């Protein structure tokens, strides 16, 4: 498993899950998974990297890590968004909290989703997955996280690989609230099991403005000319859907 978290986060999660999942409608299990790949592309053979070619350029990812915070599900009958991670409460009654964070995700590059966590969640229908791509700062939870992962000071995403055969390391301080629609909505049945996959389209990250070729990731680091283009690509690269057969594709 490539999901990394620290003790404080796990404690906060277990408390929220126990308090939020009870109610007259009962609860079911939700298994949250993470996957990498392009939309509509089934997992290929098990590999240790993801490689894409376009317009005479080739990019290969050998490791991709993301810091996320405040992962929540939004009910269909609710309005607005879930509470952001600066708030001390557990969020709106319309939201089911999956994880407080920050959490470090190592994206699977072997052709299949990885299970992140399993929780008890209130039975019902959910229309949106909300989370924050998070740059660790100076609050207490971030401090605990950074004591274990000091390389993520001021960094929310780190990617390693090769661009046209030359090694690269890309880091960013992107901080973005993400709201990913669940189409069709996710139904959690009482005493049932539901699998939800968060999929990241890595192929889209380093596309140029015309989406005709890949830019050198070194030109997207802080202060470089393609920094803004790549940040916007990353924000648009997330999808989420029910995935009971664990194939990384919408059921």
Structural write-up:
The protein has helices at residues 7-20, 140-148, 227-235; strands at residues 3-4, 27-36, 50-54, 57-75, 95-99, 103-106, 114-122, 124-133, 157-163, 166-172, 176-188, 193-200, 238-242. It is mostly beta strands. It has one domain. Helix content is 13%, strand content 41%. Strands 1, 3, 4, 5, 6, 8, 9, 10 and 11 form a nine-stranded antiparallel beta sheet that branches. Strands 7-2-12-13 form a four-stranded mixed beta sheet, with helices on one face. Residues 1-24 and 85-90 have low confidence and may be disordered. The chain has three helices and 13 strands.
In short:
It contains three helices and 13 strands.
The 3D shape can be described as: globular
Structural class: mainly beta
Q: For the residues shown, what is the average pLDDT? A: 83
Count of alpha/pi helices: 3
Poorly predicted ranges: 1-24, 85-90
Count up the domains.
Answer: 1
The biggest beta sheet is recorded as: 9 strands, antiparallel
Distance between the first and last residues' Cα: 23 Å
**Fraction of residues in helices?**
10-25%
Name the assembly state.
single chain
| Radius of gyration, whole Å | 18 Å
Residues in β-strands, percent? 35-45%
Following the backbone from N to C, one meets helices and strands in this order, namely EHEEEEEEEHEEEEHE
How many beta-strand elements? Answer: 13
């Amino acid at each position: 498993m490539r999901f990394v978290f620290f003790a404080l986060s796990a404690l906060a999660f277990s408390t929220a899950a126990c308090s939020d999942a009870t109610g007259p409608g009962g609860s079911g299990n939700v298994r949250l998974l993470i996957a990498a790949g392009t939309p509509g592309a089934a997992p290929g053979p098990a590999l240790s990297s993801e490689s894409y070619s376009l317009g005479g350029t080739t990019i290969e990812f050998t490791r991709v890590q993301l810091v996320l915070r405040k992962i929540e599900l939004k009910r269909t009958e609710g309005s607005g968004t879930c509470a952001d991670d600066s708030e001390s409460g557990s969020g709106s009654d319309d939201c089911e909290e999956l994880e407080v964070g920050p959490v470090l995700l190592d994206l699977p590059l072997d052709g299949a989703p990885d299970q992140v966590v399993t929780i008890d969640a209130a039975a019902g229908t959910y229309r949106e997955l909300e989370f924050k791509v998070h740059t660790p700062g100076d609050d207490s939870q971030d401090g605990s996280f950074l004591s274990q992962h000091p390389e993520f000071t001021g960094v929310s995403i780190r990617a390693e690989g090769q661009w046209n055969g030359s090694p690269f390391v890309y880091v960013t301080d992107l901080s973005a609230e993400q709201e990913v629609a669940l189409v069709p909505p996710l139904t959690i049945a009482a005493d049932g099991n539901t699998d939800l996959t968060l999929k990241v389209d890595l192929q889209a990250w380093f596309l140029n403005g015309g989406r005709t070729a890949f830019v050198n990731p070194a030109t997207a680091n802080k202060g470089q000319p393609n920094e803004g283009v790549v940040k916007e690509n990353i924000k648009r690269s997330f999808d989420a859907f029910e995935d009971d057969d664990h194939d990384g594709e919408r059921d």
